[in-house]
Amino acid sequence: MARETSHMDRGLFFVIGDFFNTFGSAAAGARAVEAGRKPRRSDLKKLGIDPAAFDRSGRI
Hints:
Elements: H1 7-34, H2 41-46, H3 51-56
């Protein structure tokens, strides 16, 4: 008999998925900056960076 996924299991999968999602945004943002491009707004937001503040930094 297959066991049902518990709330804890789903929470664990969510945390793991969120970690990889955040890591992906960090990697994509770093690649964009290294290539002289502005990172996507969604990647900046995922990393807790205000896109408007990034624009004002004058880095790209």
